[in-house]
Design a protein that fits this description.
Shape of chain A: elongated
CATH superfamily of the largest domain in chain A: HUPs
Strand content of chain B: 25-35%
Number of helices of chain B: 6
Largest sheet of chain B: 9 strands, mixed
Number of strands of chain A: 18
CATH class of the largest domain in chain A: Alpha Beta
Oligomer: heterodimer
Number of helices of chain A: 8
Number of domains of chain B: 1
Radius of gyration of chain A: 22 Å
CATH class of chain B: Alpha Beta
Bound molecules: flavin-adenine dinucleotide, adenosine monophosphate
CATH topology of the largest domain in chain A: Rossmann fold
Structural class of chain B: alpha/beta
Order of helices and strands of chain B: EEEEEHEHEHEHEEEEHEEEH
């Protein structure tokens, strides 16, 4: 029997949407393979109740393995998943993207001497085995990859696997006792989920003006704010500038930020890294201003302007105001 | 304390990267350079060394790659590493993530570092995974994407952005840390350091020297197989405006937005 094991991340009593996407995908693939989809959850509090765990059945998991362990760190989950895979013989481990998925998948690769693919956008069943589509070289080509031996580890790209209820019933829940490896206990969470900067709302905006490192300094965001005001939109940011403290975390788009799909996404001084793209590529209209004609963002923008944002943004703001006023 | 920094030689950012359709591997001809993400790892090592809170005896740059990869080591040394180790062997060619992580870990076991630093991603491979693979083999705690790191008393206090905001994690040494590119602004090497780089000690190792089981690396050790390389789904190319006369450019943008009823 060919089973698929996923890890489901939770935070404050709620499952992560991308993890639920992975469970949905695993459920679909397992049915095609004629095996079962199971999930692993790891937590230290009381929020992983029987009911909550069993509810993963709705997305296609038939079984849920629940273990006690620290939250928000990858290595304890590697211990749990390695044990579950070794004892129950799952052929694949599937992750829904995100930081922990990468770290856990990588850890399992080492522990089980297993093949791994990452940033996977699609998984297919071929001759009773899974084949992963893995975009490479900044999405300029797609490698079709399969696995030699088991298990195979698949780390999905953020938002690649959509969560959907499968109509299946509750999953059975089994507690597993796992002794954590010595080194898995040597990282300790001091503070988790700190929100840095103001709490801005960008998810409801029809128009987003997004700024990146090309703005040059924190004050550069004024150019984006002025344009956003003129357009009647809000301001968003890349991780590079959020990490640098130029703009609040709540405005970050991408893999470890928000996913948005506004009517207009105007990107200024943003290179268009994959981890940013995954959070905004479904926008209806994408406009990019970048001085580098080879910037990856031009590969997926509808209108690209090769030029200096310091020259263009102020004039654009004036022109939009004039047009709207007139 | 000893720090090992993992570095890799990658095609220069200005070179168009492409796949060789016959071998299904990256075409590695053309200009090459030190993976830019690794310069942040070297800089992080130098800042710990110069920061004075931890006593750093040496910073060692480590790479696995063909003969030419020695240039990445020279670059790493010119940025401050004291010496370097080059793992190179025909048996290692075409190693996948699983094999590369194992092989690098075997070299690191011989070095016995207190801290292993590496970049968040290789510019060509974009796998984001080598750090966690190496850490499991070395049985060390590990974090990736670290953007702030303070070493004190055998521990590291690290910050990084994870799925729900910023996490602060304390990690006991020895540890493996991959750093994000927001952690620092790498320095430029001085001319003197560039000139002197080739004189610093360089240790070249084969798989035998590093006690690597060759059935676990290269084509023999492959745990993944590339079946095909396909073009991405067709997307209609967007319109491009080169900004020459900004007044004109802005007019065109406004017209474009207006046509799509975005200025209502
Ligand atoms: C696991 C992981 C998760 C990540 N999560 C996220 C995430 O959630 N969100 C995210 O955004 N990133 C994320 N990243 C980081 C991502 O890979 C990029 O590093 C980041 O998006 C780059 O931000 P940027 O475009 O602002 O900066 P850069 O890549 O430095 O690009 C700046 C651009 O500005 C242009 N420019 C400079 N000056 C001017 C000027 N005067 N006029 C016009 N253009 C100019 C340059 O040509 C360049 O293209 C993640 C990375 C990893 C590994
Ligand atoms: N062949 C290699 N030799 C040394 N270090 C490597 C090698 N491949 C990857 N790395 C390190 O691992 C990091 C992440 O690479 P990757 O997981 O391939 O994206 C890089 O920034 C390097 O520091």
């Amino acid at each position: 029997m060919s089973g698929i094991l996923t890890y489901v991340l939770h935070y404050q009593g709620e499952f992560n949407k991308n993890s639920l996407g992975a469970v949905t995908e695993a459920g679909k693939l397992a049915k095609e393979l004629g095996g079962e989809a199971a999930a692993v959850v790891v937590g230290e509090g009381d929020d992983l109740t029987d009911d909550l765990c069993a509810s993963l059945g709705k997305y296609g998991a038939t079984k849920v393995y629940r273990a006690r362990g620290p939250e928000g760190l990858a290595q304890p989950v590697v211990d749990v998943m390695a044990k579950v895979i070794e004892e129950n013989g799952y052929d694949y481990a599937l992750f829904g993207g995100g930081l922990l998925g990468f770290e856990i998948g990588a850890g399992l690769t080492a522990r089980l001497n297993a093949g791994v693919t990452m940033e996977v956008t699609e998984v297919k069943v071929q001759d009773g085995k899974l084949v992963a589509d893995r975009p490479i070289l900044q999405d300029s080509a797609i490698a079709e990859v399969d696995y030699v031996g088991t298990p195979g580890i698949i780390i999905g790209r953020l938002n690649a696997f959509e969560m959907a209820e499968s109509g299946d019933g509750a999953a059975s829940v089994e507690d597993v006792e796992v002794e954590l490896s010595d080194w898995s206990t040597k990282a300790r969470m001091i503070e988790r989920g700190e929100q840095r900067g103001a709490d801005v709302n960008i998810e409801d905006a029809d128009i987003l003006v997004a700024g990146g490192r090309g703005l040059g300094k924190a004050e550069g965001f004024q150019l984006c704010e002025d344009l956003a005001d003129a357009l009647g939109g809000a301001v968003a940011a890349t991780r590079a500038v959020v990490d640098a403290g130029w703009y609040p975390y709540a405005a970050q788009i991408g893999q470890t930020g928000k996913t948005v799909a506004p009517k207009l996404y105007l990107a200024a001084g943003i290179s268009g890294a994959i981890q940013h793209k995954v959070g905004m590529q479904s926008s209806e209209n994408i406009v990019a201003i970048n001085k580098d004609p080879n910037a990856p963002i031009f590969e997926f923008s509808d209108l690209g302007i090769v030029g200096d944002l310091n020259k263009i943004l102020p004039k654009l703001t004036e022109a939009v105001k004039a047009k709207k006023g007139g | 304390m000893k720090i090992c920094v993992l570095v890799k030689e990658v095609p220069d950012a200005a070179v168009e990267k492409r796949m060789d359709p016959s071998t299904k591997r990256l075409d590695r001809s053309g200009e090459k350079n030190l993976n830019p993400f690794d310069t942040h790892a070297i800089e992080a090592a130098m800042q710990i060394k110069e920061g004075g809170k931890a006593d750093i005896e040496e910073v060692v740059a480590v790479t696995m790659g063909p003969e030419s990869a020695v240039r990445a080591l020279h670059k790493a040394v010119s940025l401050g590493a004291d010496r370097s180790v080059h793992l190179t062997d025909d048996a290692l060619a075409v190693s996948d993530v699983c094999a590369t992580g194992y092989a690098l870990a075997q070299v690191l076991k011989q070095e016995q570092p207190d801290l292993v630093l590496l970049g968040q991603q290789s510019d060509d491979g974009e796998c984001y995974t080598i750090g966690a693979v190496v850490a499991d083999h070395l049985q060390m705690p590990s974090l990736t994407q670290v953007i702030k790191m303070d070493a004190e008393g055998g521990k590291l206090r690290c910050e990084r952005q994870a799925e729900y905001g910023y996490d602060t994690v304390e990690v006991e040494l020895p540890a493996v840390i991959s750093v994000g590119d927001a952690i620092n602004e790498p320095r430029y090497p001085s001319l003197k350091a560039i000139m002197g780089a080739k004189k610093k000690p360089l240790d070249t190792k084969s798989t035998g020297d590093a006690e690597i089981d060759t059935s676990r690396v290269g084509s023999e050790g492959k745990r993944t197989a590339v079946l095909a390389i396909n073009p991405p789904p067709e997307k209609e190319a967007g319109q491009i405006i080169e900004d020459e006369d900004t007044g004109e450019t802005v007019e065109k943008i406004v017209a474009w937005l207006d046509e799509r009823k975005l200025l209502a």
